[in-house]
Amino acid sequence: MFQYAAAAQSGSSILTLVGPFVLMFVVFYFLLIRPQQKKTKARNGMLKALKKGDKVVTIGGLHGNIMEISDDIVVLRVNDVTKLTFDRGSISHSINTDTVDKE
Q1: Residue 93 scores a pLDDT above 90
Q2: Lower CB density within 10 Å: C or N end of the chain?
Q3: Distances (CA, A) of 86 to 17, 23, 38, 44, 69
Q4: Are residues 43 and 56 in the same domain?
Q5: What percent of the chain has pLDDT over 90?
Q6: Which range of residues forms the domain containing residue 71?
């Protein structure tokens, strides 16, 4: 009789050991992993949607207009005569001219 009780106790102790790890993984997934995946997906979509003439900001903070764009290279016009070449991944974000307040 005591053998069955010991077997039932050992089964529940395994559940109490594994349960917190499963709970921690679920919390990490919803608080850390999933939001990071959403940000990465949104950034990749933004990089794919870039086109000639878009106003962008690089990771270093340089503002410019896209003059030429290929699969992995972007040429930005910073002022009337200066053109700089960047990797496409160095674009931080695009500035939508429709949402910028005109003063």
Answers
A1: yes
A2: C
A3: 51, 43, 25, 16, 10
A4: no
A5: 74
A6: 52-95
